[in-house]
């Protein structure tokens, strides 16, 4: 058969840079966990509180924990895209109850009140990114996932 003695052309080597893993997006446990502790009756959480993954409250009366605005929180989520999500927990240590409220550009879905002696898990999902597909603002939805007692 003619042509069987052809010289093989080697496949070119392509540079490979490993992709960074985002543990907050790929597991239910944020790494590392930072505990943010609050005692006031009205608190606006910082993006580092939420990204840290664990927030405690300790007050004898009712308190409101307001999430950061979408414009402050979403740019701090490394690699954030629409449908990216992070989980965080809120633990009520005091005799009062705590309620998680959305900041500007956010929505809270489900029961967001944490009773005395309970821990509640939340899932925050990026729903829109500013300047992506003509969107003029960042938005998120925060879902209440469930409560545990301690």
Short précis:
The chain is mainly β and 150 residues long. The protein has helices spanning 23-26, 47-52, 70-73; strands at residues 34-38, 42-44, 53-57, 63-66, 85-92, 98-101, 106-109, 113-114, 118-128, 139-149. It has one domain (30-149): Jelly Rolls (Sandwich).
Average pLDDT taken over every residue: 83
Counting DSSP E segments of at least 2 residues, the number of strands comes to 10
- Roughly how much helix do the residues carry, as a percent range? under 10%
Count of individual helical segments: 3
Shape: elongated
Written description of the protein model:
- The protein has 150 residues and is mainly beta.
- It has helices at 23-26, 47-52, 70-73, and strands spanning 34-38, 42-44, 53-57, 63-66, 85-92, 98-101, 106-109, 113-114, 118-128, 139-149.
- It has one domain (30-149): Jelly Rolls (Sandwich).
- Helix content is 9%, strand content 38%.
- The strands form 2 sheets. It has a 6-stranded mixed sheet. Strands 2-4-6-8 form a 4-stranded mixed sheet, with no helix packed on it.
Task: Quickly list its features.
150 residues, Jelly Rolls, six-stranded mixed sheet, 3 helices, 9% helix
Layout of strands and helices, then pairs:
Layout: H1 23-26, E1 34-38, E2 42-44, H2 47-52, E3 53-57, E4 63-66, H3 70-73, E5 85-92, E6 98-101, E7 106-109, E8 113-114, E9 118-128, E10 139-149
Parallel strand pairs: 1-3, 2-4, 3-5, 4-6, 7-10
Antiparallel strand pairs: 5-9, 6-8, 9-10
């Amino acid at each position: 058969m003619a042509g069987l003695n052809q010289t093989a052309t080697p496949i070119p080597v392509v540079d490979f840079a490993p992709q960074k893993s985002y543990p907050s997006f790929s597991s239910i446990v944020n790494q590392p966990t930072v505990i943010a502790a609050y005692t006031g009756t009205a608190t606006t959480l910082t993006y580092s509180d939420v990204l840290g993954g664990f927030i405690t409250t300790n007050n004898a009366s009712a308190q409101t924990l307001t999430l950061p605005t979408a414009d402050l929180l979403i740019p701090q989520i490394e690699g954030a895209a629409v449908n990216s999500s992070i989980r965080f927990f809120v633990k009520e240590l005091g005799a009062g109850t705590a309620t998680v409220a959305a900041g500007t550009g956010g929505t809270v879905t489900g029961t967001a009140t944490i009773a005395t002696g309970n821990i509640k898990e939340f899932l925050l999902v990026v729903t829109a990114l500013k300047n992506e597909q003509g969107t003029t603002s960042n938005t998120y939805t925060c879902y209440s996932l469930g409560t545990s007692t301690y």
